[in-house]
Amino acid sequence: MAAGILDGLNPAQRDAAATIEGPVLILAGPGSGKTRVLTQRIAYMLSEAQPRIDAYNILSVTFTNKAAREMKERTEKLLVKYLGQENSAAKRLTLGTFHSFCVRVLRQDANYIGLDRNFAIYDDDDQTALVKSSLNSLGLSDKQYSPRACLSMISSAKNTLQEPRQFREVAQTYFEEIAARVYERYQELLRTNRALDFDDLIGQTIRLLRENKEVLERYQERYRYIMVDEYQDTNHAQYQLIHALADKYQNLCVVGDENQSIYGWRAADIRNILNFESDYPQAKVIALEQNYRSTQTILDAATAIIAANTQRKDKALWTENESGRPIQVFEAYNEMEEANYVVGEIDRLQVRGEFKPKDVAVLYRTNAQSRALEEMFIRRGIPYQLIGGTRFYERKEVKDALAFLRLIQNPYDSISFTRIITNTPAGKGIGPRTLIDLSQWANQMSLPIYVALQLLQSQEADKQTRRNAGEPEESNEEDLLPPLNVAPKIRNALLDFVNLLEAFIRARGEMTLLELFDYVMEKSGYELSLRDGSEEGEERWHNVQELRTVCQEYNHMPGNDALPAFMEDVALVADVDKFNPDADAATLITLHAAKGLEFPVVFIVGLEEGILPHSRSLENENQLEEERRLLYVGITRAKNRLYLVYAFRRSLYGGQNIPTKPSRFLLDLPSQLVKGYQQAPTGSPHGGRGTGSRDTLWGTDVNRTNWGNTTKPAPAKPAALSKPATPTRPAATGNISLKFKAGEKVLHPKFGKGMVVSSRISGNDEEATVAFEGQGIKKLMVSLANLQKI
DNA sequence: TGTCCCAATCGGCTA
DNA sequence: GATTGGGACA
Prior knowledge:
The chain is 44% helix and 14% strand. The protein has 790 residues and is of the alpha/beta class. A seven-stranded parallel sheet has the order 13-14-12-15-16-11-19, with helices on both faces. It has a six-stranded parallel sheet with strand order 3-2-6-7-1-8, with helices on both faces. A five-stranded antiparallel sheet has the order 23-22-21-20-24. A hairpin with a 5-residue loop joins strand 17 and strand 18 (657-659). Helix 2 (34-47) crosses helix 3 and helix 9 packs across helix 10 (213-222). 41% of the residues are buried. The structure holds a DNA duplex (15 and 10 nucleotides). Residues 296-596 form the UvrD-like helicase C-terminal domain. This is DNA 3'-5' helicase.
């Protein structure tokens, strides 16, 4: 091979990039140059491979838009470099997320399975709302049966490709039977609304391919070369989809790392990657084991953490990088001191000229942890960017504004309809009572609400004509239809609404997306109602304006194409998509969202039992392994410096400070990698603390780890910041015996009589789950709750 | 119908 | 500590 695209790759990488035909499994450890291999592989296929491959025949699937965009850009660059400016091959590639790929297929071929191409895409909120109406229309209370719990069952059924009927057959518990009924109704409602939820995007695409051989063959012929990134995160449905497409040519290249599988809760199935070799016995397996990212020390720490997991393939990461600084472990007093330590360190690194804020990421398990950090960043004037939290597209005003556009595209979308009626002035005069009347009326006639409204409109027009012609107002025709019994005022409000909607739909064909947006915001009165003069109102309007800016990007498209393209993109954006590596600011991000990113300096905070590992994962060994992988992902984001931080006390739900216990994962860190590590602390390691200056407080040598020895009571710890001093950490917490056990009857001063469902140790306390007569299930901390056995 | 206030619940990660 | 949903009231 002549000097070319694969130069500069190591032998394993080169092998991975140059193996084009047949099934390939690339096991890519963190920092092993995975993206580089993937992009060079595509470039190689297009420019050097024999036979040369047409970009049109390549499908590359990732999980985030960001990853897709990055691959596209990098591939383009390579192609320009090797094939010259003129080359347009990259534009012919199909490169996207699972969801965007499926949306494209369905917009093209939805008619084969009887779906409207203009389908709306329902996000989490929409889904929950629809589950609620499913419950209600079955005469079930959404308080008795949690819509979210139903939804999660429906979702997992969909992710394992179970139709409502099949799900009903395997339903075991009473609640599962309820969920099965809800699932069935939910699907009916989706259909009436001409909408698909996220899971359907995959599921319906599979249905399309399974039920239509010629469609399947068309896609198989087109996509002869398929690549899947982050294969460890695929769920069963995605697995089936990929395997159906690859079935004919078997040129399937999957890339992944089972140690970075952190989406089990989203039904990702780690077995997909673990079993690839048995799925394709002739598969070529290539391990990328050289790490180019991290120091030896950081890599050793990551290896030590992950070694305890059982669900993994053997591979050994190594690096030629220097050993680097030891890992800094720090115990803070509480979440505020934790934040202060982190921000103080970032400041110090900056002052010393070692790193800039943009080099730093602070990673945490839960979004709620970001608040204390944010406050401290603001207080100390260090720039930061927060990824996640309340997402832009989940803001109420943004969703409201979007609901207008969604309804214009698909007027059958009852969720958007209801949203506009209840939240915006366009629905003034129409309340919940009327909505029920209206939908019942529509139901009697078996018409969608939109059509029922149109009927109302034409009845009104008829009346008008007859009035003008001097005829009696009532006609025989109308008597055949059930009447809508509402006050004339309300009838007019409904007519105003449908007239407005029709005007919007007409406008769509006559203006650009941007003009349409402005038109809708003004005509609906939504702009005026938001900008009520309050600061908050302006802030909201500002967010709507930000959405307007997004519309602008679609202005080059013909009016009728722009809207669906816009809706599709909007429905599928993720938080990380916003991450800006060039901003001169530290990054605050969850461990999940940080996957795929890297930073010179990484802080992982909240390394406590109940947070990482998360309390909801403590009972299940598989979930614990996933928590461990999550930490592994976090550690391996770091290039040069790694800080692991935990707090001695933490307040949850804005409640009191609860003492915490350092994460069990810390115990797996080899002591020689950690700064200030003490296997068995002797004497007081905290000399002078609390009385000294800030410098000694936040210096690197005030590392007071006392984990590693849990049998010995930890020494008292003076208060930091303004918090009052607290007593010593309660003596060894290893084995508090449980006071309550399942089945026991108890009495609570407020909730009355109940029965213990379960009880477990949580922090230094016992948490009992109790079902109270008529009060439902409550979780109580035994030390606080004054529970008595009866 | 709309609005305000209180309580219950939440805060686990997300295409 | 913030959001949301229901009930009371205008």
